[in-house]
Structures are given as structure tokens and as C-alpha cells.
Write a structure and sequence with these properties.
Number of helices: 23
Distance between the termini: 70 Å
Shape: elongated
Structural class: alpha/beta
Mean pLDDT: 88
CATH architecture of the largest domain: 3-Layer(aba) Sandwich
Helix content: 55-70%
Number of strands: 8
Number of domains: 4
Strand content: 5-15%
Largest sheet: 6 strands, mixed
Length: 503
Amino acid sequence: MKPQPLKIAILAMGGEGGGVLADWIVDLGEHNGYYAQTTSVPGVAQRTGATIYYVELFPREAGESRPPVLALMPLPGDVDVVLASELMEAGRAVQRGLVTPERTTLVASTHRVYSMAEKMAMGDGRVDSGTLIAHAAGAARRFVRFDMAEAAQASGSVISAVLFGALAATGVLPFSRQQFEETIERGGVGVKPSLRAFSLARDRAVADEAADSADSAADPAKAPGDSQPAPRNAAVAQLVERVGEQFPAAVQPVVLEGVRRLIDYQDPRYAHQYLNRLVELRAALPGNETTLLRESARYLALWMSYEDTIRVADLKTRGSRFERVRSEVNAQADQLLAINEFMHPRLEEICETLPAGLGRWLARPHWIHRLVRCCTQSGRVVKTSSLRGYLVLYAVASLRGMRRRTLRYELENARIEAWLAQIVETATLNPELATEVAQCQRLVKGYSDTHARGLKNYQTLMAAVREAGARLAPATLRELRDAALADEHGHKLKAALVRHALA
């Protein structure tokens, strides 16, 4: 039988070392009796398309008359190994037909770096990781997977070295572990961390596959503890006690998460206000509407933790954020990190951050209003890693104590009360429709222009609910909400309203 080339496709994003990985495979082949060739097709941007590196290896034979002609691009159904640096890229390889159950070994990291389409969605645009893994497992002959980004971080290296180790573990390439490691050593750059990452990944992949063969790949279910440790803070303990006494067991996990979120957002007194609203709502709802109460609790917590300038400044100045950014860019302890934030607060955000009376005065047209609006026409860059930039945002975050007196707090509280009243009114007619009304809060999110667009769409839907009343089917409101989430400009929502004669 005539020898055939080994065909390897690598899908990696910028900065992940996909080119280095391709060069390692070429060097590995050339030093061990193979012809090798690599090509690459760059992606459009960081997450609109990863670069595809393609490698072919062909065994040298004694007395051959001429070298082989190797292909420049992978073809669907004709790839032996696919290496993907992120789970979505593995899904894209499957979608392109590069992964086949008859032939392909798929090696992929299970971590996610969200694509532009996922980030830009007005709703939750994330693709379910479990679905991606299931599709990839069904499409591949063999699927080697684990969180390779975590392994790279643990070893102080980059994900390309981890992929190289996982590739070695598959045994698809006819080379020994020593030959793989010698390839890394010949590279001469970052040898020690790359070898650590290679060893960790190879051992992990071998152990995982051994567990699969023993039918124990799935982790044993961890039994939850009988009780959570009691909070040390007396105010927090009182909140937890209230949740246990005043809400059904099926609702308590969501309510507890809401309490935690609102303590972090403001303080325990604010979390008590959240519980007070839920108690009043539960008393006003007909019958035992657990689903409606749970959804209302979820979205009430989200609405009460609205993103104002104080919240944005708070999140951008937290120590945990600086640590996360350092981790994401793999900054070493002796390296300096600069973080530049592009910020564009409008006049409306400035008015809403002020005490209510002063904010309403500034919002009215007069010469100071025009002066402030003129000064806020364009955004500015704030370097939060510098002392000056950090102190500017820290000062804004320190206004948290006066949040209850701001114009934004007054406006949001009025909207929340109207939303809760609409839930109660709708529940007397149709509890299922009331649940859809509760979930319409998903439209109100973000800050600045994003918040304004979402609020406008939300108000449009509430007007349709009030006009149609009991005639409005829950499925129709769900369709209208999905249309509003699918299009930030509102064109799809307008079309859906016309289609249902609700415009």
C-alpha cells in the first residue's frame, strides 16, 4: 500500500502560539525522517475567525526519485488530526467538515473565549458548551479534551505547548515522547515552561483516556453538604434566615443568590428591601405560583443591581479585576501592566449620578446644561492602571453611599414598582403570561446607549401587554421579547408587532 501523508489542521487565535505549534510539528517530522510542509490562512480578527494552520507529513523512503507534492489547504473529510485551542473553534472545525468519525482525532481545549456574535447579543448569546462537546464527540473518531488554558496557566506557558503534549498522548504521530521533547528543546525559547506544559498535558490526556476505557470518565456525583456554614456577619445571617422562613424551598437558591448580589452591589439594607418586595409579591400572587415567584426573584435582583456609573467604576477598580486581567494576558510578576478604559459618559449619566433634585435641574435646558453636553460629546481614555486614572474611578465608586439619593435610583425604583404591579395584574388573568412579563426585564440592561435602547423596547412590550390584556398569548409575548433581543435597533420587534396587530 502506498504511503499517505499525515494531515493536521490547527485552529488557534492570535497570541496562542498556533504558528509555533505548526513549526514544532514540521521540525518534529523533518528531524525524524519525514517531509513536512506548513501553510496558514489568517482569521479576520481575534474572535471572528481563528487562523488555520495546516501541516502535512510524508515519510521519506530510500531511493525515492522525487519528493512528494503536498497540499496547501485542508479538505473536508481528509484530515487526520484537528487541534483546536478553544471549544468554539472545535465546533467550527466540525461545521466545516474537517472532523469525521471515520478518520479524525480531535484534540481541543474545553475553555471558552466568547466570539463577537456571542458578546454582541442583547440577550444571553452564549453557545452552550455541553452542546458543543456533544456535537464534537459525535463527529470525531476520537476526542481528547480538557481545559488546556488552565493547564497552560498552571505551568506558566502558553496553550500551544499544552496542545503539543495532548497530541503526543494520542499516539497518532509515529514519534516518541523523547522526540517531541527534543523538538521543544531545539526551539530554544521558553524551553522549561514549555516542557512543563507538554508533560502536564500529555500525562493528563493519557490519564483521561485510561479513565474512559474503564468507563469512569464521568466524575462521580458530589453529594451536597447537609448545610452551608452559617454567615459570620449578623446582618447577613438575618437575611439568610429570612429567606429560609419566608420562601418555598424551590425558590430559595435564586433568592439567596439575589441577596448575595445586592449585598455586593449596595449593602444588607438594600437586600432587605429586595426581600420585602418579594414577600409583598408572593402575598399578591394568586395560588402557589412557584415558577412565577422564582422568575420574578431572579429578574428583580438583576433590575435592582442596575449598572449606573457608580457600579461601573466599582467593578473597574476592584483588585480581583486587575488580577483577572493579568491572568488573561499571562503577565509575569515582574512585568508592568497598563489598562486603558474607553469611557463615554453622556449628559444623562451625569444627571442620573447626581442627587435627584440637582440631576433634574441639570437635565433641563439652560446654559450649564448646554456646556456639560458640549463637554461630553466624545469619549475619553482613562488609564486605570495609573494612580490618577484609578483615583478618578475610585472617587466615582465611593459615591455608592449616596446612591439612594440619586436621580437614577429614583427613576429605576419607579420602573421596578410599575413592573411588579404589572406582574400582579397580569397574574390574576394568566399566570403563565405574568411569567413572560417578569422575564421581559431581560431587555433592561447595561448603561448609556445600550440601556436606553433596551428600556425603549421594554416599554414597547409593556404597552402591548396593557393594550392586549388577557388576549395576549404567552407564546406571543415570548416571540416579541426574542425579537427585541435579536435586534438592537428594534426593526425585528416592529415587524413582529405588525404581524400580531399590536403596533
